[in-house]
Structure prediction request, 400 residues.
Amino acid sequence: MSEPPEDLCPRINYVNNEKESNQENFSSFEISVAPMVAISTPEYRQFMRIVSPSSLVFTEMIVDTSLIHMSSSVLERKIGLPTDKCVLQIGGSNPEQIAQAVKRALPLGYKNFNLNCGCPSDRVQSGSFGAILMKDPFSIVRILQAVYLETGIVMSVKCRTGVDEIEDYGSFKKMIEIIVENTKCRTFYVHARKCLLKGLSPADNRRVPPLKYDYVFQLKKEMPELKIILNGGLREISDIKSLEGKVDGVMLGRKPMDDPMFFAEVEEKILGNTPVSTLDAISLYLNGLQRRLYVRDMFMQMDLHAPSLYTVPNKKRDHDPNTLSNVKVLPSGEVEYLCRHADLRPIETVLHGRRGCKEYKKEIAKIARNRDPTHAVIPAIHKYFLNTLPISEQEPSITE
Prediction:
């Protein structure tokens, strides 16, 4: 990890000016929902925002070129508009392209951006981004510099503690030092495992390599000025509480994917706030789905004025409510939103580990198949919330 030639990675003199970062400040101990491919959809993020208003929620990773060239309909479906405390994660290796991707997302209202330096999938590796960037920290530096110079945005970084044979603490710390010395980035989301680019699937890379919490704790101790968020292996409230004072926050992925209402418990037991009930969270979420029609119109207007760089879709098809499969125009002229599976997927697992979970999921699937309107959902599922104690806390059934 020697110093690169001056022209490959010029040192930027960061000063306070009109290009200062507009990153938001979050609570002293940050709780965040990890970026998850095909999970962290606009619908999922909206539901998690209702369940835990204090938490930071990431989008799924969006490849830089995809973000630049997406049509309005695809862009609306993939990232939507930002909710409060939302971070857009971008994957890529070309500094100029990532800068353009950030630039395109700014008019949508996104203020916080994260660079993916931890994904080990073959598809990501083929594009020379994700975890492979950790092998050349200066490639990360060049990306962060390009984004800052073009937009004034300071991206955070999500990384691992190591990659392949580079797994010692000294190499991990050196990578962070190079980034800090050459950029304005001070926030790192660290999955406390190394990843193997060959031989393990992305799923196995999330559980097989041993956790290295000590690396993350030591980094925070030696570089206390950094904001260090720990990710990996966190499943219980006690896991989170044990980390307070050792790092600046935690990031969870699989737990809120399996059990989104766990974050209502986090809101209460970690952050000291009044939790929302499951049924109230669902009701608020369903009431917000109608807003997607207005969001679509906004995206359509953006494409009408978009540079030729962007792909402009069929305007009538994407704009006319009568051509949308999840919209019903009533005789009165009002537009009724019909539930798709994508809309209901975030609430499928809200009864995780509780009596009636399987029957509830079947009901949700039926509603999605029928494309029922949003106002029909609560009456259909209300019965499943009359007795929702955890299975372990209920009396065992009597069998003959």
The first strand starts at residue 30 and ends at 33. The mean pLDDT is 85. Residues 137-151 form the longest helix (15 residues). The two ends are 70 Å apart (CA to CA).
